């Protein structure tokens, strides 16, 4: 097979023509790195190698773009990149970023868990679930959350003071408060203990 034309396209791609017919679009940097030129002969094995390299390069570019906006877990990043490339290319690209230290599940888990507990005031069990939803290994999620020093009662107070303190003196307001805290993963016993500081009504019975 002979490469008969290479035409630059948008988004860093080049159109490759083989034996006078359009064959595929490929990453331009890959074309340059493999020193592919018009008139070159290329066999199936070499073409597959170039295509694979192009796919990984494009997947890596997408991954870099995503982490430039915010940190991601490894699995979360692979899943997002794989929407625009093969899962294999996405995995190889993300693993390369992992080797370079640009993504790190332990670092990500600690940062995200801290936000969930300190800013969103979730319970520890809810924080573990959120981390798992992001693709963090369950054992790592549990260990990370357990290492963080969190005052459960202070977190519950923070939620009550922010959202519910003005409406605790009627049944509807109290139930709304309890339900909201339960959704954040807190137990009825812990909620009741803190809420007793605001009102002496036994709202859970």
SSE order, one letter for each helix or strand = EEEHHHHHHHHHH
Rg calc: 26 Å
Main β-sheet, in a few words? 3 strands, antiparallel
Structural class: mainly alpha
CATH level-four homologous superfamily name of the largest domain = Winged helix-like DNA-binding domain superfamily/Winged helix DNA-binding domain
Give, in spatial order, the strands making up the sheet with the most strands. Answer: 1-2-3
Number of strands: 3
Q: Just give the CATH class of the largest domain.
A: Mainly Alpha
- In whole angstroms, how far apart are the ends? 80 Å
Number of helices: 10
Mean pLDDT: 88
What percent of residues adopt helix (DSSP H or I)? 55-70%
Number of domains: 3
CATH-level-2 architecture of the largest domain: Orthogonal Bundle
């Amino acid at each position: 097979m002979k490469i008969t034309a290479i035409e630059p396209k948008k988004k860093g791609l080049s159109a490759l023509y083989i034996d006078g017919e359009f064959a595929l679009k490929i990453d331009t940097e890959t074309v340059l790195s493999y020193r592919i030129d018009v008139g070159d002969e290329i066999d199936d094995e070499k073409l597959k190698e170039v295509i694979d390299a192009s796919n990984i390069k494009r997947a890596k570019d997408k991954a870099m773009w995503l982490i430039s906006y915010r940190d991601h877990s490894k699995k979360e990043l692979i899943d997002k990149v794989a929407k625009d490339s093969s899962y294999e290319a996405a995995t190889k690209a993300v693993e390369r970023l992992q080797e370079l230290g640009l993504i790190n599940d332990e670092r990500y888990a600690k940062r995200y868990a801290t936000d969930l507990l300190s800013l969103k005031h979730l319970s520890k069990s809810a924080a573990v679930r959120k981390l798992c939803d992001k693709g963090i290994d369950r054992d790592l999620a549990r260990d990370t959350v357990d290492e963080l020093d969190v005052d459960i009662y202070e977190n519950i107070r923070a939620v009550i003071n922010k959202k519910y303190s003005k409406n605790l003196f009627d049944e509807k307001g109290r139930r709304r408060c309890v339900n909201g805290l339960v959704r954040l993963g807190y137990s009825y016993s812990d909620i009741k203990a803190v809420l007793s500081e605001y009102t002496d009504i036994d709202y859970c019975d």
